[in-house]
Specification:
This protein is an alpha+beta fold. The protein is 22% helix and 20% strand.
C-alpha cells in the first residue's frame, strides 16, 4: 500500500505508505497470530481470501471487555500529514483511520483462528458487482451506516467521495493518483471536482433510490473490490465542508471513533463515536473508550516504557522496538511481542536522469545493509532481510533473480572498482535525512560512512523528524528536492499483486516514482499486463520486475520487511494486521 514512513534517511521504516494500503495475510505459525519474533523472517501470504456475504456486527473477540484508554507509541514516525480520507496512502494513517474512524466500500477483517486477513464488505452490502469484462462495477450502499452526527450515509456522498480521488492537484500524494486516475473512465479528460470545478463527470453515477454507486472503467479492472478498501473509496460530505485542505484537519467520522484532537507530528486523540452502528459493520469493534497516538516518539524512551511493566505501559503498545533490546523484549513479553509480515520492500532510488547504471550498481554495493538496520533499530534476519527484487516474498509471480549474479551485499572495494571503471570516482551523492532521533541519525552516520568508504562524496540535507521525507521527495518544486540525486521509498503492496508495486514505483510520472524512472517500453508493458487473462498476470509482473531491474536497475531493493509490535500486558488480543503491516487496531481492547 502504499508508502511507509521514510525513517533513517531512506534506510528502513517501521510500520506501510504505504499505503497504504494492503499486503498479504498474517503469516504467523500459531493460531492467534501473536507469535513473538524468534522464528526468523516470515513471508506474507500470496492471497487474501474474500467473504462477500459477511455482515455486521463483527464477531466478538473472545474475552474482550469495554472501557479504558489505549496509548500507541510510534517511534520515529511523524504520522499522517492530514486526516482527509481521500489523501490517505501511508501505512500509519491508513492503519489507524481505516480501522477506527473512516469506512469505505470494502474492508479487511482478521480471522482470529488463522491470523489471515479476509476482504469483506464495509459500506457496501457485498464486494461489488462487476460486468463480464470488469469495465463497470456497481456497489449497493447499506442503509444503516451513519456519520458521526447521526445522519445516514447516502449513495451520493459515497459517489462524491470517490470522485474526489480523481483530483491529483488537490490530493497530489493520494492513492487516487495511481488507481482512480489510471483506471476510471475518461480520467485523462477530467482532472477532478476541484481542478475542473463545474465540469460534469460521467464515470461515476449513483441512484439514491436503489442506493447504488456505479463506476465505469477505461480498461478491465478486476481488482476494484480491493481498491474499494481504501478510504478514498468512501464518502465525503457534500458542499464546502469537505473542501481541502481544511477538511483534512478534522474530518467527519464514519467509524467507531471520532477525532477529539489532532496535532500533526505529535498526537492524535480519538474518542467513541456514539452514532456508529455496530450492526452495520462486519469487521470493527468499539471496545476502548479512547485512543491516544503519540507520533515521532523517542525510540529509547519507548523501549524503556514498554519494558518497565508500570501502569502506563500496561495499556500501551509500541509500533517499533530497537534492535539492542530485542532479546529482552522477546524474553519478557513472549506472545505480546508480535511479529507481523506484510508484502513490503525498502528501496534506494537514485535519480534516473542524473545517474548511470554503473553508479546505481556501485551504490548498491555501498549500502551498509546490516549496520544501517541495526542502527535504525531493526533486527537483521527478523524484521529485515536482504532484498533481490521489487516484488516482495509471498507475492504471486515473484522472480528470484539476482541483478549481479548473486545477492548484493555491502562491498565497498567492489563499489570503488565499479566507479573507477566507469570514470566516476568521487561521484557526489546529494541526499536528505531526518534529524531529531537517535536512531535516524545513527543510521545516517552508517550510510555516510558506507558511501565514503566506497569512493563516493556525500552532501546531506537535514530535515526535522516531524517532516516526512516524502513531502520533499514528491514535491518537484521543493528547493532541497531539486538538489537531490538519491532519494528513497518504502513500499507495501496495496493488495497482493505486482500491479500495486511496479506501476506505483516505476510508471512514468507516478507520484512515488522517486527515482524519476521513465521508459516508454516499460510503461507499455505495464498497461499490457492489465489486459492479460487474470491467471497469467502474476508471472508477467514477475518477469517485468526482472526485466526492468536487470536492464535498467532504476531502484535498489535494500530490504524485505517484517515489523515487531510490543503490547502492554493489559492490551487484549495482541495481534497484527497482515493487510496493512500494522497492529490489529480493530480487535484490541483493555483487559479490565
Amino acid at each position: 500500500m502504499r508508502r511507509t514512513k521514510a525513517a533513517a534517511a531512506l534506510a528502513t521504516s517501521a510500520a506501510l505508505v504505504t499505503l497504504a494500503a494492503c499486503g498479504g495475510g498474517g503469516g504467523n505459525d500459531d493460531e492467534t497470530g501473536g507469535a513473538s519474533g524468534d522464528q526468523g523472517f516470515k513471508d506474507a501470504s500470496e492471497t487474501i481470501a474474500k467473504d462477500a456475504e459477511r455482515q455486521g456486527p463483527a464477531p466478538e473477540v473472545e474475552g474482550a471487555s469495554a472501557g479504558g484508554t489505549i496509548t500507541v507509541y510510534l517511534p520515529d514516525d511523524p504520522g499522517p500529514e492530514d486526516l482527509d480520507p481521500t489523501n490517505g496512502w501511508s501505512v500509519t494513517g491508513n492503519s489507524i483511520q481505516q480501522a477506527l474512524t473512516h469506512r469505505s466500500l470494502t474492508q479487511y477483517a482478521r480471522d482470529n483462528e488463522t491470523g489471515e486477513m479476509v476482504l469483506v464488505p464495509d459500506l457496501a452490502t457485498d464486494l461489488g458487482q462487476p460486468n463480464d469484462d470488469f469495465t463497470e462495477w456497481t456497489f449497493t450502499i447499506r442503509d444503516d451506516a451513519t456519520w458521526e452526527d447521526g445522519k445516514p450515509i447516502t449513495a451520493e456522498e459515497v459517489a462524491w467521495g470517490i470522485e474526489r480521488s480523481l483530483d491529483s492537484t488537490a490530493f497530489p500524494s493520494g492513492p487516487g493518483t495511481e488507481y482512480s486516475t489510471h483506471y476510471f473512465l475518461d480520467a485523462d479528460k477530467y482532472k477532478g471536482p476541484y481542478t475542473d470545478k463545474g465540469k460534469d463527470y460521467k464515470g461515476i453515477t449513483f441512484d439514491e433510490d436503489a442506493r447504488t454507486v456505479t463506476i465505469k472503467m477505461s480498461m478491465p479492472f478486476p481488482d476494484m473490490d480491493y481498491w474499494g478498501a481504501f478510504m478514498a473509496m468512501g464518502p465525503s460530505p457534500l458542499g464546502k465542508v469537505s473542501d481541502p485542505p481544511e477538511y483534512g484537519r478534522s474530518p467527519l467520522s464514519t467509524g467507531p471513533y471520532k477525532v477529539e484532537s489532532f496535532r500533526p507530528s505529535e498526537e492524535l486523540v480519538l474518542v467513541k463515536n456514539d452514532a456508529w452502528v455496530a450492526d452495520s459493520d462486519p469487521a470493527r469493534h468499539q471496545y476502548a473508550d479512547k485512543w491516544v497516538f503519540k507520533f515521532a516518539a523517542d525510540p529509547t524512551q519507548t523501549d524503556e516504557l514498554m519494558l518497565s511493566g508500570n501502569t502506563e505501559s500496561q495499556t500501551s503498545l509500541a509500533t517499533q522496538i530497537t534492535a539492542e533490546n530485542y532479546a529482552k523484549f522477546n524474553q519478557d513479553l513472549g506472545d505480546r511481542l508480535v511479529q507481523q509480515s506484510a508484502q513490503c520492500t525498502s528501496f534506494w532510488a537514485p535519480d534516473y536522469e542524473k545517474t548511470t547504471p554503473e553508479i546505481r550498481k556501485a551504490l548498491a554495493y555501498a549500502y551498509p545493509y546490516e549496520s544501517v538496520w541495526q542502527a535504525s533499530g531493526e533486527v537483521p534476519g527478523v524484521t529485515r532481510v536482504p532484498a533481490n527484487s521489487i516484488m516482495p516474498p509471498g507475492m504471486a509471480g515473484k522472480s528470484d533473480y539476482q541483478v549481479d549474479g548473486e545477492q548484493i551485499t555491502y562491498q565497498p572495494e567492489k563499489a570503488k572498482e565499479i566507479l573507477a571503471e566507469a570514470g566516476e570516482e568521487g561521484y557526489e551523492i546529494h541526499m536528505a535525512y531526518n534529524t531529531g532521533s537517535p536512531t535516524t541519525e545513527a543510521a545516517q552516520k552508517q550510510i555516510e560512512k558506507g558511501l565514503t568508504d566506497s569512493g563516493f562524496k556525500v552532501t546531506s540535507y537535514p530535515v526535522p523528524i516531524e517532516t516526512s521525507l516524502y513531502t520533499i521527495w514528491t514535491d518537484p518544486d521543493n528547493k532541497i528536492n531539486k538538489k537531490l540525486n538519491l532519494r528513497g521509498v518504502n513500499w507495501c503492496s496495496d493488495w497482493p499483486s505486482g500491479s500495486t508495486m511496479i506501476p506505483a514505483l516505476l510508471r512514468t510520472g507516478a507520484t512515488y516514482n522517486t527515482a524519476f524512472f521513465s521508459e516508454e517500453s516499460a510503461d507499455a508493458k505495464m498497461d499490457e499486463i492489465g489486459t492479460m487473462p487474470l491467471e497469467d498476470q502474476p508471472d508477467a509482473w514477475g518477469a517485468l520486475d526482472e526485466e526492468i531491474e536487470t536492464e535498467y536497475y532504476p531502484i535498489i531493493p535494500t530490504a524485505f520487511r517484517n515489523d515487531l509490535f510490543a503490547f502492554g500486558e493489559k492490551i487484549g488480543n495482541p495481534t497484527g494486521d497482515g493487510a496493512l503491516g500494522a497492529p490489529n487496531y480493530k480487535d484490541l481492547y483493555v483487559a479490565q
